[in-house]
Design brief:
By secondary structure, the protein is an alpha+beta fold. The chain is built from five helices and nine strands, in the order αβαββαββαβαβββ. Strands 2-6-5-4-7 form a five-stranded antiparallel β-sheet. A four-stranded antiparallel β-sheet has the order 3-1-8-9, with helices on one face.
Length: about 210
């Protein structure tokens, strides 16, 4: 308990020792997002693309190919007590939706090639069922008290984030010039994923996997 009005030196020092949790991450919160997994063949091609772009002297945080996925919604820190309700909401969101084909194609950056911050590989279009799942997730989670995404749904695979402007435009130009030859795959499941931040990078663990049928 924080004491208000206590200005004595020894007491303030003593009280600071009573709050060991101030410097710790909350243990009852899980960093969570909803995503669709992509095939290993696409991850391997993205890895080769990243290796080519690494030849340019630039400060970029590259996404590990094993961690690349299509994010449908990032929830941030979710209290453990709410996770079960999130699972139920996701079940309702995908109910009655059959597997569907998506096509990865092209590459680019946000917000622009001159001042890039995010490097991505894109999708040729947004299939009706993908848009429906996204809209359903927004609706169901809004009912559970989660905020709606304000930006238009723009599916992409983040392959890197710019850390400094140095040569960033060169990397963006090279990425766009390289492109990404189209490759289609069938989406059969939606995943509620847990993200744990480690010194070596993010570690993702599925919390629940919902099959489309």
């Amino acid at each position: 308990m924080k004491m208000i009005g206590d200005t004595s030196g020894p007491s303030r020092f003593f009280m600071s020792k009573k709050h060991p949790t101030r410097d710790k991450e909350p243990t009852d919160v899980i960093r969570t997002f909803i995503c669709i997994e992509i095939p290993q063949s696409i991850k391997e091609r993205i890895n080769r693309l990243q290796e080519n772009l690494r030849q340019i002297d630039a400060q970029i945080s590259w996404t590990k190919p094993s961690n690349i996925h299509l994010t449908l919604k990032f929830l941030g820190g979710v209290e453990v007590a709410r996770i079960e309700r999130v699972k139920k909401a996701l079940e309702r969101a995908v109910s009655g939706i059959c597997p569907f084909e998506v096509e990865v194609s092209g590459s680019g950056c946000f917000p622009s090639a001159r001042s890039p911050r995010v490097l991505w590989v894109g999708f040729s279009n947004v299939p009706e069922r993908l848009q429906q799942i996204y809209s359903n997730i927004e609706d169901e989670l809004a009912r559970e008290g989660f905020g709606r995404e304000k930006r238009k749904f723009s599916p992409h695979l983040t392959i890197g984030r710019i850390r400094t402007p140095h040569n960033a435009a060169r990397v963006a130009e090279a990425l766009i010039a390289s492109g990404f030859e189209s490759e289609a795959f069938i989406t059969t499941e939606v995943i509620l994923m847990r993200s744990d931040l480690k010194p070596t990078g993010s570690v993702y663990t599925p919390q629940t996997v919902l099959r489309l049928s």
